[in-house]
Amino acid sequence: MLSKPVTRTQITRGQRLWLYIVVGLVMIFLVVPCLLVVPMSFSAGEYLEFPPKELSLRWYRAFLGSPEWLNALWVSVRVAVPTMIIATIIGTAAAWGLHRRTDIFATGVRGIFILPMLVPLILIAVGVFFVYAKVGLNGTIGGLILAHTMLALPFVLIAVGNGLASFDMALHEASRSLGATELRAFLSVTLPQIRISVMSGAVFAFVTSFDEVVVALFVSSGENETLTRRMFANIRDQVDPTVAAISSLLVGMVIVGMIVFLFVGRDETQEH
Length: 272
Known about the structure:
It is a multi-pass membrane protein. This protein is mostly helical. The chain is built from 12 helices and no strands. Helix 1 packs across helix 12 (242-271). The longest helix is centred in the N-terminal third of the chain and has 33 residues, at 67-99. The two termini are 34 Å apart.
């Protein structure tokens, strides 16, 4: 490690020490709350406590043995999967169309697509609730899918747009000059080149829907109650470690998914 800079503009590792400390503190701030919930989920007590006085799988059994919790989980999956599919298709098509245009109209359309990411979620939830009240979509799976698709579209658009930014359009034009239709050229030439970006957008869309709670509080109820909405109600009404057990399972699923995605992305990079 250099103790002195070789040139006037060179920054040594010692001079960057403060940056390493700040990054480390930020990572601890983000990760520790997620990890604390894991030991709390193994508590044998009636309430959340850290550290747990006695270890038990009681609350995992309570979750897996509860028809209400499992139904809420099934509703979340039934909403998240269609949301992922619809948002990925629409978002990819929109990103492709906007990528090929650079005029003011394209800029305005891109802003409209990203708007759900900028507007406070509570305002969107209230607006969706009143619109659904007029058309009878409150408390329905279809209404949740439509609302979550709107929220997931910006993530797909940005992810696919970043992939298209590094894509060589000459490959697409070459396939068109050889007689391929626009759709066939996109599916056979362009899509394979940006598939990692599309997969990233799909993952973001799924997570956005599965984790969403604010809109679900307004438009889901009864048998169509999502898992996150039921978790929120459980914390509000009674604080027991069942929510910690569910959160631990979700954290584990996210970690496994990230590892699988990283390995898939690395394999794709090595192939190229």
